[in-house]
Write a structure and sequence with these properties.
20% of the residues lie in helices and 28% in strands. The chain is of the alpha+beta class. The chain has a single domain, classed as Cysteine proteinases (Cathepsin B, Chain A, Alpha-Beta Complex), CATH 3.90.70.10. Strands 3, 8, 11, 12, 13, 14, 15 and 16 form an eight-stranded mixed sheet that branches. A four-stranded antiparallel sheet has the order 2-1-7-6. It is an enzyme of class 3 (hydrolase).
Length: 316
């Protein structure tokens, strides 16, 4: 969304000279975003970065979200925070547990690894299914839960023991203006003997995951309201693992209809004639000696896999 302004020089100049209609459309929240950032102009972000080392793009997005929220939490929450209503029912006492939880990180993590149905153990990399399938799994999943209700104790429930494989539903209680989705691109075999808090998955998921320009989430809301999002940008990764490689992005052009790729500060161009394929299969030209031009015959680790999707809400 922001790229439409900061990468399109003509629109930026128009806005700078008072033509605010240049910012109309999905970029309207940019005005509030700028106001929030200007409220703390002395914030030094660069002190938190280790220059010259590979970093995860999703972690960077989460970091930026945290810093922006400190400036103006109310504006930030309206723009980026999806509030969920989560519920599950105990199979022993039939008590339904419900709670609301805002995703203040500003990212919705969609897991594209395979899971065994009941054990919740990771089985392997993605099957390469459409994004809508993985989103359905996100909102209707299984969790390991513990029931602490008095009814459960009276009915001879498991007490302090967790119950595996319980149906667990998530529903959207409040939809943000901007929806950032992280598609899981790494997996590791579950090992009960490991301290998972210290483990980091090393295997990259290369499978293509198709996604559409428009994403409807109305079926996952608490009240059945229409919630429709339009794709504005994609961050993609190229490399054999998430520990190394290169990130580029693809964004919707300012005309609102076509798409283009961005590679650092040097390239703003179209590789697939400006079609939606710019988003699904971002590509890049050579930028340094060990980075080659990509084509259809390139091996998976030499291609870019979409990693983060940025959607803006369509007001109907």
């Amino acid at each position: 969304m922001l790229a439409q302004i900061y990468w399109d020089n003509k629109a930026y100049k128009q806005a700078s000279h008072g033509h605010q209609d240049a910012l109309l459309g999905p970029t309207v929240p940019l005005r509030d975003f700028n106001r929030a950032c200007k409220s703390n102009p002395n914030l030094r972000l660069e002190d938190d970065f280790a220059f010259g080392s590979q970093a995860d793009a999703a972690e960077f997005v989460a970091y930026l979200m945290e810093k922006v929220r400190e400036m103006d939490a109310a504006t930030f929450d309206t723009m980026f925070v999806l509030e969920e209503e989560n519920s599950w029912t105990c199979q022993y006492c039939s008590t339904t547990h419900t709670k609301r939880e805002p995703l203040v990180e500003g990212l919705v993590h969609v897991d594209t690894s395979q899971f065994e149905d009941e054990t919740l153990e990771k089985e392997g990399p993605s099957e390469g299914l459409p994004l809508t399938t993985y989103i359905g799994r996100y909102f209707n999943t299984r969790q390991e839960m513990k029931c602490d209700s008095a009814q459960c104790k009276d009915s001879g429930g498991p007490g302090d023991q967790f119950i595996k494989g319980l149906p667990y539903t998530k529903r959207i209680a409040r939809a943000p203006n901007v929806l950032a989705i992280k598609m899981q691109r790494a997996w590791s075999k579950y090992d009960p003997g490991k301290d998972l808090s210290k483990a980091r998955p090393r295997n990259k998921i290369f499978e293509r995951i198709d996604f559409e320009e428009y994403l409807s989430l109305g079926q996952y809301t608490t009240n059945g309201e229409t919630v429709l999002y339009r794709l504005e940008g994609v961050v993609a990764h190229q490399g054999p693992s998430l520990d190394s490689g290169h990130y580029i992005s693809a964004v919707r052009a300012f005309d609102g209809h076509e798409f283009q790729s961005l590679n650092d500060s040097k390239f703003l161009r179209r590789h697939w004639n400006g079609t939606m394929e710019e988003m699904r299969s971002p590509a890049s030209e050579r930028t340094h000696a060990d980075f080659r031009n990509l084509d259809f015959d390139a091996s998976p680790d030499m291609c870019f896999q979409p990693y983060i999707l940025i959607y803006s809400r369509v007001i109907l």
